[in-house]
Specification:
By secondary structure, the protein is an all-alpha fold. The chain has 9 helices and no strands.
Length: 186
């Protein structure tokens, strides 16, 4: 009976987890094999080298961060504004946010990763423009609101300011309402 190999997806998923925890330099074949509890020999049955794994990790992240997120928000949202908010929650979820931040850091040193990040960010901004364009006609305001919404989504975890008399969640909900031109949430 043949030996079962660790599936390719497990290598990619462990690579993404390692990227999120330690950055791109932490993504090493031996370290991944150890964390998976296997030998590194199985790695080379799927990937020519570490660069091939890194490319597949980026492919998996891009697919999940754009295609999967947009499809799920399209299926589950009641209206276009809810679609944008759900896409934001999925994009900056507990799972994807650390990967996204690690890729942003990696992109500062790697032009190919920076180009891929730009493509993903443009997809995200296109959704925001589309949504905001349903209630706003001024192209400058559409762009400004889209940028502000995206910046809030990315940067809010890094802010440590207090919000006297309010929770962070309440302030973020109100910011979303303002940016999406909705009445205050209940």
């Amino acid at each position: 009976m043949g030996t079962l190999r660790t599936p390719r997806e497990k290598w990619v998923e462990q690579g993404l987890r390692t990227l999120a925890e330690g950055g791109v330099d932490a993504v090493r074949v031996e370290a991944l094999a150890k964390s998976l509890g296997v030998t590194k020999g199985g790695f080379y049955g799927y990937f020519a080298d570490r660069d091939a794994l890194l490319t597949e990790m980026l492919d998996a992240w891009e697919r999940e961060a754009t295609d999967d997120t947009l499809a799920q928000s399209e299926r589950e949202a009641k209206d276009v504004k809810d679609r944008a908010q759900l896409a934001g929650k999925l994009t900056f979820s507990e799972r994807l946010r650390p990967i996204d931040l690690a890729i942003r850091d990696w992109a500062r040193r790697d032009q190919a990763v920076a180009e891929r990040l730009r493509r993903v960010d443009n997809t995200r901004m296109d959704l925001l423009r589309e949504v905001i364009g349903t209630f706003c006609v001024d192209p400058d305001e559409i762009e400004a609101r889209s940028l502000l919404a995206f910046c809030v989504a990315i940067a809010s975890p890094f802010l440590t300011a207090d919000h006297p008399g309010r929770t962070r969640a309440e302030v973020l909900a109100r910011a979303a309402d303002l940016l999406l031109d909705r009445p205050p949430s209940a």
